TrEMBL record:
Annotated spans, Disordered: 1-29
Biased composition (Polar residues): 1-21
Gene3D superfamilies named in the record: Tetratricopeptide repeat domain
Name of the protein in its database record: Uncharacterized protein
InterPro entries from the UniProt entry: TPR-like_helical_dom_sf
Length: 212
């Protein structure tokens, strides 16, 4: 086990060795959130050439391509060590042996996951129950990383949230949330993976949220 670090008098900073800056491999498709010796971290990529994991410490939510992330230089840890995933909580995005999904329930060491990587006809969701080992927690996708179905699902959840604000007579909160739902799907580009249900849901969201 080793770590590559550059220490100065004011802080500890883990920097990438110059030789590996020349050509970077693609980032991991599912970036696991792990518990390191230095706190929580995000495995940005696992290098195939040497098995080294590039772990961003502290900020585990931002995408590397987000404007907020690009404005600062993150603390990085480079190690071959396999750190464990942080404990999963309900609502976390997770990966298990069946794919990626959202953790819906935890009961007696049984994890109920609604899979996003599996899609049936209509609006049916695929749910699995994992008992062998806890699923790994992964960073939630940023908007630009989502496919059409994910964007529509996010907009539908915000539409439901806006309706709740409206019923509570919080009209400002409802208006802002309806507008946010429209923004999530404003630039959706359909392709061959977009089902008729996704296309129909998009039309409903655009019409109902815009009218509200």
């Amino acid at each position: 086990f080793y770590e590559i670090m550059n220490m100065n008098s004011s802080s500890h900073r883990y920097t990438q060795p110059p030789s590996s800056r020349q050509k970077q491999e693609p980032e991991d498709a599912d970036q696991v959130i792990v518990q390191t010796d230095f706190g929580r971290g995000l495995i940005v990529r696992t290098r195939k050439i040497d098995g080294i994991k590039e772990i961003r410490l502290g900020d585990v939510k931002s995408s590397s391509s987000s404007p907020a992330f690009r404005r600062r230089e993150p603390n990085m840890l480079y190690t071959p060590k396999d750190y464990p995933s942080v404990p999963p909580c309900i609502g976390d995005d997770v990966i298990c042996e069946y794919g990626r999904g959202v953790l819906k329930e935890i009961a007696d060491d049984k994890y109920t996951i609604e899979l996003a990587s599996w899609r049936l006809s209509g609006r049916s969701n695929v749910t699995c129950h994992v008992v062998s080992s806890p699923p790994k927690v992964v960073r939630k996708h940023a908007l630009h990383e989502m496919d059409s179905a994910e964007k529509v699902a996010l907009a539908k959840s915000q539409k439901a949230e806006a309706a709740k604000y409206f019923s509570e007579k919080d009209y400002t909160g409802a208006l802002n949330t309806y507008a946010s739902a429209v923004d999530k799907v404003r630039n959706v580009q359909h392709d061959h993976t977009s089902s008729n249900e996704v296309r129909a849901d998009l039309v409903v969201i655009m019409i109902t949220c815009s009218n509200n």
